Amino acid sequence: MRIELDGVGKRYGRQQALAGVTLDIPAAARVALVGPNGSGKSTLIKILMGLLTYEGRVRVGGLDRRTAGPAIAPGLAYVPQVAPLAAASVGELVAAITGVRGIPLARVVANAAGLELDLDAVRKKPFRALSGGMRQKVLLALALAADASLYVLDEPTASLDARGRAAFLRLYEAIAPSATLVLCSHRLEEIRHLVDHVVLLEDGKVAFDGTADGFLAGRAASIVELLVTLGAGEPWLRDRGFTAGAGGWWARFATPAEKVQLLPAASQALGGALRDVIVRDVESLDPKGQHA
Distance between CA 119 and CA 141 in Å, rounded? Predict the structure, then answer.
């Protein structure tokens, strides 16, 4: 499904959550929707899903979001940021959704197993009695079992541990390549290999709309840490922006291009004095290139 937004705005009382958002996301795109808390990400997703009123124009799959909701709905699959605290049992919830959507139960069970969740073991429990991570796994198993044209996943791994996030990424990779996917996340380092497009929202406005490579080239950052024999290589390290820490460690922020150049250069310049190297991805840089 192609997604077209023209001058989309949303206000909550005096608070402007979205202001003049215009986007054109082609069908089959894999989009990361990123931005700081309060930037308007969840508001935009709820508008796409038809859950909020809005100003401006929204078309999903060529259909008007305001007037063609019933026609759009069968092609959507959605996982909210916060799982609803439904009183129904897990089994009742799964049966209702698979029945309405025509989803094979076996596919949901297999997805849940892939997420290390035994659906049969929890089917009699109230959905709201599950832990946050287990509720998220149930919703992911349902959404990823649908043959949707547009998947909208709002912070889908927020309640998952490291093993759960890795399991989700494996299921994600099985989504049909013809489907459009909007993945809202503050953990871009985890999903950057899964998306080809990035939309950055800041203060309810589009601050970046382009390729993932273009976004990461200008904004992604790493911390490069070098453990050097005490007293060795100080002029070289300081000239290249490293700051001294405790116990012989030196550190600096680096863009991807800088990181690629720094590591071999450090190895050559420091030689045997270089005792260890740690490279850690951190949050993105802001549009001006400063660390957020």
Answer: 10
Domains of the chain (ranges plus CATH)? 3-218 (3.40.50.300), 220-282 (3.30.70)
Buried-exposed string 99-117: b where 16+ CB fall within 10 A, e elsewhere = eebebeeebbbebbebbeb
pLDDT in tens, 6-50: 999 999 999 999 999 999 999 999 999 998 888 999 999 999 999
Helices 256-270 + 212-219 axis angle, to 10: 50
Phi, psi of 84 (to 5 degrees): -65, 145
Pairing of strands 197-202, 180-184: unpaired
Name the token pair of 253. 């922020």
Indicate the SS3 state at residue 216: helix
Are 187 and 156 in contact by the 8 Å Cβ rule? The answer is no
Q: What is the pLDDT of residues 213-268, one digit of tens each?
A: 788 766 667 889 999 998 889 999 988 889 888 888 999 888 777 888 899 999 99
What is the DSSP code (8-state) at residue 262? H
186-191, long-range: CB < 8 A, 24+ apart = 186/34, 186/36, 186/37, 186/155, 186/283, 187/157, 188/32, 188/34, 188/216, 188/220, 188/283, 188/284, 189/220, 189/281, 189/282, 190/157, 190/165, 191/32
b/e per residue 73-84 (b: at least 16 CB within 10 A): eebbbbbbbebe
**Are residues 143 and 76 in contact, defined by beta-carbon separation less than 8 angstroms?**
no
pLDDT at 194 over 90: no
| Distance, CA of 150 to CA of 135 (rounded, Å) | 22
Strands 76-79 and 150-154: parallel
Q: Which of 138, 140, 111, 109 is nearest to 126 (CA)?
A: 138
Nearest of 123, 117, 118, 119 to residue 92 by alpha carbon = 123
pLDDT at position 220 is 62
